[in-house]
């Protein structure tokens, strides 16, 4: 099994990242480089989280092996184990051979840092650029990132000059590398504590509120009112942008040098607008530079950028509105079925997407009723209690992990107890649950936060390229300090435990933080204590209340604005529900009419076809018969008709003789 666990987790994490990216991104419409870069960033961050427990168990085994093969001694520079064992060390099932983990961590860490500080910011500007060529987009991206890159180069250059001039500093390349890593981790830890403090409270509370049907329904109504406002705003913005595109398309004709740019813009417009502009466009008129003023290529690039943004926002609000309607209808169905005597779940509307037959076989209406109306609320309550317990343990450990005698961090206590018996499965499970919970609290906050329309991760393939790349940047910056914080909570970091023990492979690539003692002994230890203040602020919803006072509509039960928006959303849902019912009733009537009169219409249609065939055959038969019997009478009738036409005198048309009064025309004749 040597290295097999590492290979299995590498494959599993790849498919996990691919699944999440498929849920939020759009593989068909977004650029392949954006998909690949985001997938690589997510994959590397998730990989660090899943592989780190294996590194911990391997390090504990190496400490045990070192303690057995050598006599531990204090103060002579040799490694001293936490609990020397007189028995033979057992190799863990997930043991990774020596030399693999340092190389693995070095590749993963520096690749993620290259992505977050260099490649992804450049690709963000490239994706947002409205240029019409690759060269133009690259030029725009370089200009936008000049200040971004220049700031870092200026700070780093000033630091190098200060180190070179000051004789008290004698830093080598490894120490400079450690300082750079410490600076990146410090920035990441600053943001990590903010996100962690929100997630530790909001995740258990959201699951507890998930058991309240009335709360979820009211919040859905609130979201419907807000989303309808955003949807109307997106439609209005799209109309304004399409009007500008129409004017530009009419002014720039087919033989204008910038016509290719206009055609590129038109391809990004919705189909109905393209058809409307195509009907109203006259490409046979030449352009005249002396008479008309035409937009420049720079203004067209700006318009192109606005078109991409407005179309993406309009499509996203349309999809989110349909999803929210389905959610509201389902919650209303749950509220109705709670008092059902038959204990069978009845849906108001049938699902528009075809369901799996296996799911239909096992997930019957009776099973659905028991789950939705009886079991699910209790399951969410129990899960909320478990998550709240984990949150309390994390907050306690964050405030006490610097204490080594006695050991107050509960995670460190759990790991040290398992280390005494070398129960590697327990060690890996405890480490995995701990770092997985921390990752959920941090990463879920990244998925939930929304910075206006600048950054927003929307599910069902509605996230734009800029937000995907920005999320990759955040993950790559948050994961290394998250792992270091986890190692500090479990006292696997020598900087925290203050013991000369063998470090983990992940810690070894970070270097010794003793180079910057004020960061290692100060910021890394005392700053995570702020998570207590942030948890208290999140529990009392101080951030939500501040945003509500500033005019940003937030869901608050004791707010008059919230009540008004709930009533508005309830009316919107009721209106859409009546509309959906009328559509289904019309479809049912057409289906019943077709089933009832479909056979009769088919028989009538077959009789009509048979009659036509008989008439055509009869006419063909009459045409083939001799016409001598009818020749004389037909000839006489034709001669009488010719004589009447010859007796009629032709009348000359005179405009003056035309009168409106019919009596005058009769008298004149």
From TrEMBL:
InterPro entries membership: GPCR-associated_LMBR1, LMBR1-like_membr_prot
Skewed-composition ranges (Basic and acidic residues): 582-617, 635-644
Organism: Poecile atricapillus (Black-capped chickadee)
Coiled-coil stretches noted in the UniProt entry, renumbered to this chain: 224-251
Family the entry assigns: Belongs to the LIMR family.
Keywords assigned by UniProt, alphabetized: Coiled coil, Membrane, Transmembrane, Transmembrane helix
GO CC, any one term: membrane
Entry's transmembrane regions: 6-21, 33-52, 103-126, 146-165, 177-201, 378-396, 425-446, 466-489, 523-542
GO biological process: adrenergic receptor signaling pathway
PANTHER family: G-PROTEIN COUPLED RECEPTOR-ASSOCIATED PROTEIN LMBRD2 (PTHR21355:SF0)
Bias-annotated ranges (Acidic residues): 658-669
Protein name: LMBD2 protein
Region (Disordered): 576-669
Major location (coarse): membrane
Biased composition range(s): Polar residues: 618-634
Cellular location(s): Membrane
Taxon lineage: Eukaryota, Metazoa, Chordata, Craniata, Vertebrata
Name of one Pfam family that matches: LMBR1
Gene coding for it: Lmbrd2
Topological relation to the membrane, as annotated: Multi-pass membrane protein
